[in-house]
Amino acid sequence: MYKVMVIDDHPIVRKGLSGIIDSNENLEVIASASDGIEALAILEKLQDDVPDIILVDVLMPRMNGIEFIKTVKTVSKIIILSTEIDRYAVVNLLSLGISGYLLKDEAPNDIVKNIEKVLNSDDYVALSTEIIDEINKNKSKNQLNLSDRQIEVLGMVANGLTNKQIGKELFTTERTVKAHLTEIYTLLNVSNRAQAIAVAIKKNII
Protein backbone atom coordinates (compact mmCIF):
# COMPACT_ATOMS: atom_id res chain seq x y z
CA MET A 1 0.00 0.00 0.00
CA TYR A 2 1.28 3.47 -0.92
CA LYS A 3 1.57 6.11 1.80
CA VAL A 4 0.24 9.62 1.14
CA MET A 5 0.62 12.99 2.88
CA VAL A 6 -1.78 15.92 2.34
CA ILE A 7 -0.70 19.54 2.92
CA ASP A 8 -3.42 22.22 2.71
CA ASP A 9 -4.41 25.11 4.96
CA HIS A 10 -8.15 24.34 4.71
CA PRO A 11 -9.29 21.57 7.11
CA ILE A 12 -12.27 20.69 4.91
CA VAL A 13 -9.96 20.15 1.92
CA ARG A 14 -7.60 17.96 3.94
CA LYS A 15 -10.50 15.91 5.25
CA GLY A 16 -12.14 15.60 1.83
CA LEU A 17 -8.94 14.59 0.05
CA SER A 18 -8.05 12.12 2.78
CA GLY A 19 -11.47 10.49 2.47
CA ILE A 20 -11.16 10.19 -1.31
CA ILE A 21 -7.64 8.76 -1.11
CA ASP A 22 -8.38 6.34 1.75
CA SER A 23 -11.31 4.92 -0.22
CA ASN A 24 -8.74 3.42 -2.61
CA GLU A 25 -7.39 0.09 -1.38
CA ASN A 26 -3.90 0.89 -2.68
CA LEU A 27 -3.54 4.26 -0.95
CA GLU A 28 -3.43 5.40 2.68
CA VAL A 29 -3.10 8.92 4.08
CA ILE A 30 -0.56 8.64 6.90
CA ALA A 31 -0.18 12.36 7.68
CA SER A 32 -1.61 15.80 6.96
CA ALA A 33 -0.48 19.37 7.65
CA SER A 34 -1.87 22.90 7.35
CA ASP A 35 1.30 24.50 5.93
CA GLY A 36 4.88 23.82 4.91
CA ILE A 37 6.40 24.40 8.34
CA GLU A 38 4.07 21.92 10.03
CA ALA A 39 4.69 19.45 7.19
CA LEU A 40 8.48 19.64 7.61
CA ALA A 41 8.14 18.96 11.34
CA ILE A 42 5.90 15.94 10.69
CA LEU A 43 8.26 14.54 8.04
CA GLU A 44 11.17 14.83 10.47
CA LYS A 45 9.23 12.78 13.04
CA LEU A 46 8.27 10.16 10.46
CA GLN A 47 11.97 9.55 9.67
CA ASP A 48 12.12 6.28 7.70
CA ASP A 49 8.34 5.99 7.37
CA VAL A 50 8.14 8.77 4.78
CA PRO A 51 5.15 9.04 2.42
CA ASP A 52 5.51 7.76 -1.13
CA ILE A 53 3.73 10.85 -2.42
CA ILE A 54 2.86 14.29 -1.03
CA LEU A 55 -0.07 16.42 -2.22
CA VAL A 56 0.66 20.12 -1.67
CA ASP A 57 -1.37 23.30 -2.02
CA VAL A 58 0.44 26.36 -3.43
CA LEU A 59 -1.05 29.21 -1.39
CA MET A 60 -0.65 28.59 2.35
CA PRO A 61 0.28 30.77 5.36
CA ARG A 62 3.74 30.72 7.00
CA MET A 63 5.32 28.53 4.30
CA ASN A 64 3.65 28.09 0.90
CA GLY A 65 3.92 25.13 -1.44
CA ILE A 66 6.81 26.48 -3.52
CA GLU A 67 8.88 27.29 -0.42
CA PHE A 68 8.11 23.85 1.01
CA ILE A 69 9.27 22.08 -2.15
CA LYS A 70 12.48 24.14 -2.23
CA THR A 71 13.14 23.33 1.43
CA VAL A 72 12.07 19.72 1.87
CA LYS A 73 14.61 16.93 1.50
CA THR A 74 12.60 13.84 0.66
CA VAL A 75 12.46 10.97 -1.79
CA SER A 76 8.68 11.37 -1.92
CA LYS A 77 7.05 12.30 -5.20
CA ILE A 78 5.13 15.59 -5.07
CA ILE A 79 1.90 16.65 -6.78
CA ILE A 80 0.57 20.20 -6.53
CA LEU A 81 -3.18 20.58 -5.97
CA SER A 82 -4.28 24.16 -6.62
CA THR A 83 -7.41 26.19 -7.30
CA GLU A 84 -5.80 28.33 -10.00
CA ILE A 85 -4.01 27.94 -13.32
CA ASP A 86 -0.96 30.11 -12.70
CA ARG A 87 1.35 29.76 -15.70
CA TYR A 88 4.35 31.14 -13.80
CA ALA A 89 3.74 28.79 -10.86
CA VAL A 90 3.36 25.78 -13.18
CA VAL A 91 6.68 26.54 -14.90
CA ASN A 92 8.45 27.26 -11.61
CA LEU A 93 7.21 24.10 -9.91
CA LEU A 94 7.86 21.79 -12.86
CA SER A 95 11.42 23.12 -13.01
CA LEU A 96 11.77 22.03 -9.37
CA GLY A 97 10.94 18.47 -10.42
CA ILE A 98 7.39 17.96 -9.15
CA SER A 99 5.46 14.97 -10.49
CA GLY A 100 2.26 16.82 -11.30
CA TYR A 101 0.07 19.92 -11.12
CA LEU A 102 -3.66 19.27 -10.74
CA LEU A 103 -6.66 21.45 -9.97
CA LYS A 104 -8.80 20.90 -6.88
CA ASP A 105 -11.99 20.84 -8.94
CA GLU A 106 -10.84 17.70 -10.76
CA ALA A 107 -13.19 14.75 -10.43
CA PRO A 108 -12.15 12.78 -7.31
CA ASN A 109 -11.66 9.66 -9.40
CA ASP A 110 -9.29 11.54 -11.74
CA ILE A 111 -7.21 12.79 -8.82
CA VAL A 112 -6.82 9.24 -7.50
CA LYS A 113 -6.00 7.89 -10.97
CA ASN A 114 -3.29 10.52 -11.42
CA ILE A 115 -1.82 9.72 -8.00
CA GLU A 116 -1.64 6.03 -8.91
CA LYS A 117 -0.10 6.74 -12.33
CA VAL A 118 2.61 8.93 -10.79
CA LEU A 119 3.36 6.29 -8.17
CA ASN A 120 3.53 3.48 -10.71
CA SER A 121 5.65 5.22 -13.35
CA ASP A 122 8.71 7.45 -13.36
CA ASP A 123 7.71 8.46 -16.90
CA TYR A 124 4.41 10.09 -15.93
CA VAL A 125 3.86 13.78 -15.15
CA ALA A 126 0.28 14.54 -14.09
CA LEU A 127 -1.15 17.75 -15.55
CA SER A 128 -4.76 18.91 -15.35
CA THR A 129 -6.62 18.92 -18.67
CA GLU A 130 -7.42 22.61 -18.11
CA ILE A 131 -3.72 23.38 -17.71
CA ILE A 132 -2.88 21.50 -20.92
CA ASP A 133 -5.64 23.44 -22.75
CA GLU A 134 -4.23 26.72 -21.43
CA ILE A 135 -0.74 25.73 -22.56
CA ASN A 136 -2.00 24.87 -26.05
CA LYS A 137 -3.59 28.33 -26.42
CA ASN A 138 -0.17 29.94 -26.17
CA LYS A 139 1.79 27.93 -28.71
CA SER A 140 4.26 30.00 -30.72
CA LYS A 141 6.96 29.51 -33.31
CA ASN A 142 9.62 27.00 -32.27
CA GLN A 143 12.78 28.94 -31.37
CA LEU A 144 14.87 26.10 -29.96
CA ASN A 145 15.48 24.16 -33.19
CA LEU A 146 13.41 21.19 -32.09
CA SER A 147 12.26 18.95 -34.91
CA ASP A 148 8.55 18.42 -35.57
CA ARG A 149 8.86 14.90 -34.17
CA GLN A 150 10.60 16.17 -31.03
CA ILE A 151 7.83 18.73 -30.47
CA GLU A 152 5.28 15.96 -31.01
CA VAL A 153 7.02 13.77 -28.41
CA LEU A 154 7.24 16.70 -25.98
CA GLY A 155 3.52 17.36 -26.41
CA MET A 156 2.74 13.73 -25.62
CA VAL A 157 4.93 13.90 -22.51
CA ALA A 158 2.97 16.98 -21.37
CA ASN A 159 -0.24 15.04 -21.96
CA GLY A 160 0.95 12.39 -19.52
CA LEU A 161 1.94 9.59 -21.88
CA THR A 162 4.72 7.21 -20.84
CA ASN A 163 7.58 6.24 -23.17
CA LYS A 164 5.82 2.99 -24.00
CA GLN A 165 2.55 4.78 -24.82
CA ILE A 166 4.36 7.37 -26.96
CA GLY A 167 6.08 4.59 -28.88
CA LYS A 168 2.73 2.95 -29.54
CA GLU A 169 1.22 6.23 -30.77
CA LEU A 170 4.17 6.90 -33.09
CA PHE A 171 4.55 3.28 -34.23
CA THR A 172 8.11 3.15 -32.97
CA THR A 173 10.08 1.50 -30.19
CA GLU A 174 10.40 2.66 -26.60
CA ARG A 175 14.15 2.86 -27.20
CA THR A 176 13.61 5.37 -30.03
CA VAL A 177 11.37 7.47 -27.79
CA LYS A 178 14.09 7.52 -25.12
CA ALA A 179 16.57 8.67 -27.78
CA HIS A 180 14.23 11.51 -28.78
CA LEU A 181 13.90 12.55 -25.14
CA THR A 182 17.66 12.50 -24.63
CA GLU A 183 18.06 14.88 -27.59
CA ILE A 184 15.21 17.06 -26.30
CA TYR A 185 16.80 17.28 -22.84
CA THR A 186 20.10 18.32 -24.43
CA LEU A 187 18.49 21.02 -26.60
CA LEU A 188 16.46 22.38 -23.69
CA ASN A 189 19.36 22.02 -21.23
CA VAL A 190 17.27 20.02 -18.74
CA SER A 191 17.59 16.63 -17.07
CA ASN A 192 14.05 15.27 -16.70
CA ARG A 193 10.49 15.29 -18.07
CA ALA A 194 9.09 17.86 -15.65
CA GLN A 195 11.86 20.34 -16.44
CA ALA A 196 11.40 19.75 -20.18
CA ILE A 197 7.69 20.53 -19.88
CA ALA A 198 8.50 23.65 -17.84
CA VAL A 199 10.83 25.01 -20.54
CA ALA A 200 8.37 24.09 -23.30
CA ILE A 201 5.59 26.00 -21.51
CA LYS A 202 7.84 28.99 -20.81
CA LYS A 203 8.94 29.16 -24.45
CA ASN A 204 5.39 28.51 -25.73
CA ILE A 205 6.55 25.46 -27.69
CA ILE A 206 3.64 23.27 -26.61
UniProtKB/TrEMBL annotation:
MF terms (GO), sorted A to Z: DNA binding
Response regulatory domain location: 3-119
SUPFAM superfamilies: C-terminal effector domain of the bipartite response regulators, CheY-like
InterPro entries: CheY-like_superfamily, NreC/VraR/RcsB-like_REC, Sig_transdc_resp-reg_C-effctor, Sig_transdc_resp-reg_receiver, Tscrpt_reg_LuxR_C, WalR-like
Keyword presence, Transcription: yes
UniProt entry keywords in alphabetical sequence: DNA-binding, Phosphoprotein, Transcription, Transcription regulation
Pfam families: GerE, Response_reg
Residues where 4-aspartylphosphate is found: 57
Domain HTH luxR-type: start-end pairs: 139-204
GO biological process: phosphorelay signal transduction system; regulation of DNA-templated transcription
Identification of the protein by name: Two-component response regulator
Originating organism: Liquorilactobacillus hordei DSM 19519
Organism classification: Bacteria, Bacillati, Bacillota, Bacilli, Lactobacillales
